[in-house]
Amino acid sequence: MSKWLKRFYLFVIMVFLYAPIVTLMILSFNESRTSVKWGGFSLKWYQQLFESRTILAALGNTLLIALLSAVLATLLGTSAAIAISHMKKRKQSFCMSIVNIPMLNAEIVTGIAFMLLFITLGDLLAFFGIHFEMGFGTVLIGHITFNLPYVVLSVMPKLKQFNLSMYEAALDLGAGEGQAFFRIVLPDIMPGVLSGFLLSFTMSLDDFVITHFVKGLGADTLSTLIYSELRKGIKPEMYALSTIMFLAVFLVLLAVNLKPQGGVKNTN
Amino acid sequence: MYKRSVSYPCILWSAAFIIIPLLFIFYYGLTDRTGAFTLSNLAAIATAENSKALILSLGLSLLSTAICLLLAYPLALILSGSKIGRSGFIIFLFVLPMWMNFLLRTLAWVVLLDTNGVLDTLCKLSGLPRFKIINTPAAIVFGMVYDFLPFMILPIYNVISKIDINVVNAARDLGANSFQTLYKVIFPLSLPGVISGITMVFVPSLTTFVISTLLGGGKILLIGNVIEQEFMKGTSWHVGSGLSLVLMLFIIVSMALSTKYDNGEGNVL
Amino acid sequence: MGNRLIDLQHITKIYDGHPVLDDLNLYFNENEFLTLLGPSGCGKTTTLRILGGFETPDQGRVIFNGQDITHLPPNKRQLNTVFQKYALFTHMNIAENIAFGLKISGKSKAYIDDKIKYALKLVNLDGYEKRMPDSLSGGQQQRIAIARAIVNEPKILLLDEPLGALDLKLRQEMQYELIRMKNELGITFIYVTHDQEEALTMSDTIVVMNQGYIQQIGTPEDIYNEPTNAFVADFIGDSNIFPGTMVEDKVVRIFDRIFPCVDVGFGCNTPVDVVIRPEDVELGAPGQGTVDGVVSHLIFKGVHYEMEVTACGREWLVQSTKMYPVGEQVSIHVDPFNIQIMNKPESEDEEAVVLDV
To answer: Which ipTM did the prediction report?
Structure first.
């Protein structure tokens, strides 16, 4: 393939991936309410966005769930990865396949499985007079669970690379097991932990299917709010919000990516 | 550096929220309303409507997987040979769209693909045949390819970029031309990535109900739509679970294939 | 060398039903450079890890200055380890690496800074405080690993094949450095290696190990000149090991030829192993020595020639500064003083040890 052809192909794929995103951005500035007609440039959807209680509440839920589920999945997943990396080969691959189920299984199956669990649990608890129904908490549990494999898969390679004698050296130099872990092991596997966290946050933010099945009556996230608006037509405020979120993330990630690599020193 | 207690929270969590929920599907799928054992929920797949949905799902997801592979493989080759591929920038480019909501991203194609939509208007203006695929199976395939293409690109790219360049050089040195090198050396070495990509596209395509709802205009039912309706419209959880079990059979087969060929290198995400 | 510092008593360690160490008894003196030498799998690294506290023996005790430290965790032991692949903390700079142990034990900043300066000077790397470990060469990283260990003022420094990853020239240089450091610090070095040359160069005492047993303990000279069995003889330097019969005191028969020697006390007509170092085999004109033979191989090795001579149906390894071309008829003579007689292995266990090599 000639260089020109390669670039053209790359370009076409990029257009394919980003065309919908550009479309949504343009629509967010569309004066007209319908997405079919261009009614002139306007910022009114951005204005109205900040007056819409439902959208802001869903945004709040979405961000809170993404943050909490990413933090908890990172804690749980990192400890799981540490435990799994110490297992014998057979047990290790068994545990990995269990943890990987939520990632490999169909989202719809995971979603309905959760729904069946939570509804049965609700019935069971009602029997004891405890009120339990699906909502924020169940969405959080669902998100933590499907984030878990992403954290484990990000941390595991770092743990495998970790030179165990570095840990032993820390003990040898007088550190207790806890000190050795937090001062030596954790900083070393940190890149994996961080990428697991970011991945979790992204997956959680973008999830629709599992939330759809476990949200119950309350706890709408942006995804489920959009889905419920399908019939009436999507409010253009949504486009405005997505554009803001996308650009914010784009700028942050760009900054992180453009930051010169290496030479990361910690002086204390 | 490890105490056994470290593993307890995760074991507990996995048991409670991975294993037990799946057992519920088995329980509901294999019992009727009275709790008696039955296979009729599984047999429900054979009804005309359901089997049609399953066959359509299989057809569309196989097609979209094939298209993804055809699009992604050359792209992965190009990326692994270029400078932009070396940095994390490439992952960045493919993960970035995920920050635009999945539903909105897919819905945007309605605007682009609709009659009198952007593409149609472009075709009309340039005198090409009109472009009307919205609310057809073709639009669904389009959506699947769009949504899941990154899951094909990343594993293949990951494996190809790790191939030792000297292996390729050796093939050339031993007289293989570029095509033979690709076909006999690079492709077999990239197989773990390909297999991993295939499962990562096939499983979500087969089981989706969102893409068909958004781009199929609500008229085209995939197996995912059937199951979703059994649960959300309150028809029958038992039948819904039974159909899910049938669906899981396909998933398990493709997962088994992927673990057989994939030794973990293909996993990127 | 001073008093006994650390004692290993009846140490047994079993991995997967296979004993790595079997009833090992060994002691280490103050201010001693002791080397554990042996092939991989001989138990030398396990011994070191038991001393360091990274392994607990299945049986036996570790006594340090009269105290039982068998079950004391590594962070409570007054000894420090230099790890095989250095194990520097890659996310910390050199100064932070060296300061690690001192910070843990809560030393003052002034004290720590002083120690860092002193340690870097000792290992000849002044001014490297702010560098990161991966910007250093292998030899420099090794020096930092030593500096990091010695600032904690251990009574004993354990070194686990520390020079294994370095190239030959650097390795030789570091050998002298280690001897200098040991003398300067006045502490005990316990050194693990499979490189017999390293062991001979640096050690006060060498412990030769194989398959979990100690084969011989002695000074480098003892070990080289008077190996107690065929394993040691074969492992230390090149040697010819032949089966022989001790006819009487000071007379040994090898391949039906009588050789005078200096060993006594083996009894009459006792089967023995005979060790002759290749540099001790003297070649001459045919008929002038004890045995005649033909040169079958010749290699130039720099300081000397290495030849194989076929005599009595066996190959004799010979090192000589004088060259005899292949095919030349020669005679073999060995000075009685250079013939080393060893008992045949008695138990089957020991036999296996010998055959294994």
So the answer is: 0.86
